[in-house]
Amino acid sequence: MEQKNLILGFDFGEKYSQFCCYDRGTHTAVSIPVKEGEEAVEFPTAIAKKRNEETWKTGPDAEKSAHAENGIWLDNLYEICMGSRICQIENRDYTPGEVLGTFLREALKMIGIERPDQQIQAMMITTGHLTRPFVENVREAYKIIGLPRGRAYLQEHDESFYCHVLNQKPELWSRKVGLFFLKDEEASFSELSISRKTKPATVTVKRGPKAALSIKPMERDRDFCHLMGEAMGNEIYSSVFLVSEEFDLAWADNSLRQLKKNQRRIFGGTNLFAQGACFSAREKVEERRLKGYLFLGNDLVRYNIGMEMTINGSPAYYALIAAGVNWYEAYGMLDVVPESEKNVTILSEDEDGSGTIRHTLRLDHFPDRPDRASRLRVRVWFSAPKTLEAEVTDLGFGSLYPASGRIWHRSIRIA
């Protein structure tokens, strides 16, 4: 692959990962084979390292290569990248972000992208669940491959599901849309619905029941049929998608017959999330096809965060974080000069303005200074969808009152 201005979606799975690329000619997201001329698009979420060298390799043949050359095979890459623990390999410490960046660099090389900074216009990574450590690791990884924040994005599978569905023919999402995700011996259900009562129309993805699946084919089919009955009942669905990291439904005879009832359109495969991520990346940097819709995902901040203050003698409100952004992208900072207060108050307000809560951060052991002789830096961010972090740093006041270095912090549950 030698093109430029590529728009990529990357599904970072627990066991397998894959890329999709946006085709401007057909307006579709196309899966990228791991080897030219072959059909396989998934490759292990793992990486090999040659001993005593900074030589890394990923892809379908990487494990064989590692074992043949007595190399190192990291097959717990997903677990490493979801956390913040340092990874020690051959007496050298690597941050999880470094490991992830190396994996991405080698995976891009595998599909023919040698210079991501010059060839990629936008890239969206998607995965099942976002943690604060993973968000930070992805940011570090993007820096390693040379993609700045305006071209490098991240979202959960739910939002990729939404982006995939709304880029299909409208008749496939005129009513509810179902999604079954099969992983190992478990299946889970999600339901996408659209409310057209407002402008823009709002889209939600609600996670439904889960079920354990037997390893025996007939019992597995029975377990899946039971889950479908529990999840969908007699509701009408325009379409249903079946997704699995290792797609094989040879056991699902009765299940598939049940799914096709009520003229439902059924689709199956492994690449739904990668395609959805690809469409979402396109939405960020090119045409806004979904501008008439608002996705109300679980990652969305539903509160306005700010502070009350006095500006030129008049009371005023300063917004730090506006509702409507994903929690892992929400950040605000403000320098203030307090009068006599020995605390900082953060306000959280429902996005519809229906209620405001005051959260006080006490500045214990504050340096002894006259009023208005201190400068404080207030920073706020979210560590989880409903957990706000507030931090205040004493910056002193010029040469008269040097900074004390004190930092006050509070975690605030916003619910």
Characterize this entry briefly:
The chain is of the alpha+beta class and 415 residues long. Helix content is 22%, strand content 38%. It has 9 helices and 25 strands.
Task: Describe this protein with a few key phrases.
415 residues; 9 helices; 6-stranded mixed β-sheet; alpha+beta; 38% strand; 22% helix
Helix content: 10-25%
Our estimate of the beta-strand percent is 35-45%
User: What is the arithmetic mean of pLDDT?
Assistant: 91
Output the number of helix runs: 9
Intertermini distance: 47 Å
According to DSSP, the number of beta strands is: 25
* Structure classification: alpha+beta
Unreliable parts? none
* Tertiary shape: globular
Q: What Rg do the Cα atoms give?
A: 25 Å
Largest sheet: 6 strands, mixed
Description:
Helix 3 packs across helix 5 (132-145), helix 6 (157-165) packs across helix 9 and helix 7 packs parallel to helix 8. The protein is built from nine helices and 25 strands. It is of the alpha+beta class and 415 residues long. Helix 5 (132-145) links the parallel strand 10 (120-127) and strand 11.
Ordered list of secondary-structure elements with their pairings:
Layout: E1 6-12, E2 16-23, E3 28-31, E4 43-44, E5 47-49, E6 56-57, H1 62-68, E7 72-74, H2 77-82, E8 87-89, E9 92-94, H3 96-110, H4 116-119, E10 120-127, H5 132-145, E11 152-156, H6 157-165, E12 176-183, E13 186-195, E14 201-212, H7 217-232, E15 237-244, H8 253-259, E16 265-269, H9 272-285, E17 293-295, E18 303-311, E19 314-321, E20 331-336, E21 343-350, E22 356-362, E23 376-384, E24 387-394, E25 407-413
Parallel strand pairs: 1-10, 10-11, 12-15, 14-17, 15-16
Antiparallel strand pairs: 1-2, 2-3, 2-4, 5-6, 5-7, 8-9, 12-13, 13-14, 18-19, 18-21, 20-23, 21-22, 23-24, 24-25
Helix pairs in contact: 3-5, 6-9, 7-8
